[in-house]
Amino acid sequence: AQKVTQAQTEISVVEKEDVTLDCVYETRDTTYYLFWYKQPPSGELVFLIRRNSFDEQNEISGRYSWNFQKSTSSFNFTITASQVVDSAVYFCALSEVYGQNFVFGPGTRLSVLP
Amino acid sequence: DTAVSQTPKYLVTQMGNDKSIKCEQNLGHDTMYWYKQDSKKFLKIMFSYNNKELIINETVPNRFSPKSPDKAHLNLHINSLELGDSAVYFCASSQEAANTGELFFGEGSRLTVL
Lengths: 114, 114
Hints:
The structure holds 2 protein chains of 2 kinds. By secondary structure, chain A is mainly β.
């Protein structure tokens, strides 16, 4: 069965600090997809990134970067030079069948203090 | 135009009542979902529909029933509401065949049972 663990329940950082959110997953499939979603205080769920299991290249998008390591079943998310607007709950998710059967981790609440 | 829209956004009702939450997507997606987010922010899938066929039915009480009149709509009907049903319910859609696997979420419907 698929499972996603986000061990950090809450993280607080001061603005401009770098922060890494951890995500560890379990799956028996060789083909799967990993995602990160952001839920700001306003409540909507915002898609950030998708990664398939055959692409271990790290990705950078502005201040965001993702480190996918199949050997450790991890898909960690780093925010560089954090800003107050980054304050949100961040969810890691796993899909074993393409586009379906999403399982979300419990989320990490990030607070960026001014 | 909003891609995934759900109504109402807020719903306050008494225990024992029956209520419905409507969801519509204008993305032409094949699969629609209902997720429940509890007070601890944990996201749990309740149902998904693919071309009007139920393909996932997690262990939710049978007081909850999804109804899909067509591919663009997936409504959630709840009978005999209980206090524990208070949560935010998110509708989502995904394109099974598209090369994204991304879930598009509605804004959520906050249900409060008194």
